[in-house]
Structures are given as C-alpha cells and as structure tokens.
Amino acid sequence: MLEKILKSFVCLSVVILAAGCAAPVKQLDYTAFKQSRPKTILILPPLNESPDVKATYSMLSQMSYPLAEAGYYVLPVALVDETLKQNGMTLAADSHGIAPAKLQEIFGADAALYVTVNKYGSVYMVLSSAVVVTANAKLVDLKTGTVLWSGTASASSDEGNNSGGGLIGALVTAAVNQIVNNVTDKGFTIAGVTSQRLLSAHQPNGILYGPHSPKYGTD
Amino acid sequence: MNNTFAKRPVLSRSLPFALTACALLAGCATPSKPLYQWESYQPQVYEYFKGQASVEQVTILERDLQKIRATGSKPPPGYHAQLGMLYASLGKDEQVVQEFQTEKELFPESSTYMDFLMRKFKK
Lengths: 219, 123
Hints:
With 219 residues, chain A is α/β, with parallel strands linked by helices.
C-alpha cells in the first residue's frame, strides 16, 4: 500500500513539475516587435492604482535589471525622472501623455515602456498577510507609436510558503528572507520579483532579446 | 494477491521518473551569466527617489564600482549616469561631465541623452 502511494506520488510530482514548466499560453504576436527591433528603452514613471505612494518609485527602481539583462540599453531612470520634472511633468500621468516623437527627440530612445502598478502592498488573509505587487506594461515604438509588446505579472511574499511555485517559489522565498534580514521594505523586494517576471526575455510571451545579449535575434 | 507487484523495488520504478523530473526542471531554469554586475545600483536609485542625493550614495556606488572593476565585469546601463547626477547635486562639476562621458563610451546609444544633459549642465 505504502509503495503504491509512493509511486503515485512520484508520478504526480513529475506531472506537476512539467505543468509548472510549460503552461500553455496564447502566443503573442511579435511581428511589430521584430520589425522595430528597438535598442534603447525609456522607462517612464509608472502610474499607480494602489493606495501606497511608494509604488511608482519602488517599481521604477527595479525595472532596469530585467530589461538590461535582456540586452537593451535602459535610460538611467532617476535622471529621466529629473528631466521630466524639470520640464513640468511632476506626475507619472503627465509623462504618459507626452507625444512619442517628443520623447524620442529628448531621450534618443527607440521605445518607451508604459507601466501601471495595479497592486502594491499588504493583502491580509486568514492566518497571515502577504505583500503583493502586480503590474502591467506595454512597450511602444517611439517612431511610429505602435505597441510592440504588452504583458502583466504579479508576485507575492507568500508564494514560497505554500511551496506551489517550485523553483520560482524557492527564489521568492530567498528574496523575501533576504529583506527580512535587511531593513528595506518588503514591497521593494517583491517589486523586484514582479519586474523580472514582467520584463525578462526567454519566457512565454516575454520580451525579445535586445542587441547587447549574445542571444539577440535567436528568438 | 497483489504480492508480486508489491515485491518489486520502488526505486527501479521511480528512478526514471525522478530523472525526468530533474531534466524538466533543469530545462526550466537555465541561469545564464548576467551581462552586468549590478551590485547595489537599483537599491541606491531607490534611495535617491526616497530622499535626495547624498554623499553616502556616491560612496556606495564608487565602492561598488571598485568591486565591479576588480572582477573585470561591466557596470549596468545607467550606472555612470546616476553617479554623474549625484555629483551634479553635490556640486562636483568635473566629475559630472566625466561620468556622463563614461556612460557614453560604455553605451554609445546613450549619446543623444548624455549630450542633452551635458548641454543643460554647462549652461
């Protein structure tokens, strides 16, 4: 009896592992992305739909990593924010309203990333509370105004605890433990996980590799 | 009744499955070498956003830059530009231009924006 249970457990875990790997997702249309082949990306300050005022700049601070590691030149986010403010664009929403051609003229970027943070902060559940960060983004060609890519992602500090996330869950746990030991706020760390899920290349419906990556042009 | 089945060792049956599982997982996470050495660039950018430019931020970024150079890696896009901006708010004019120039050399595609910043700065 015990052996039977063991066997079925092993089989089941293989199925679960495989399912976690390749979730069947609708294939995104990459035609415009491949035609445009942007090299430089301007990340605009994200719009914030959450009640936490930290959301915009926490998320903005974390998004350079996945995009640069995917192979793009990411314009320095703090400097871009300063330039926008010096030109009267004090709110994130203001910068989202600037004409693409104007952005290209000043920043020399090929594409701009428009991000909205949907959720940022604590979500209280029965026995615990979790920090959740959810965001969506679209990449827009600044010459033509065409949307090249769009996506959405979420991360939660609670993922590691129910062990459903496999490897990713373990990574989240590691990331969270890291800040538990540090003094920084949890939202910033979770925003980092959300950013990587949202903007990494080499994942279903992710962005394509950029010119600094050795894998540029292979996807 | 079920004895013959039950006597078979569990391992011989489950091992192939376990190996498959490992292979599948390995396919999932292929950690390739990062393009840049980030150190605390992003947390320091966040520090800047939370408050203002400080000598401490410059100290940390310059210290990290030594680590990056020691391993022969590249700092990420924006790293030198960020330093330039911090130097500007601390009134260290010479370093400002130098940092923007370094950003330009490392990433020529930043030229339009770096030139724009240097024009503004020199006014």
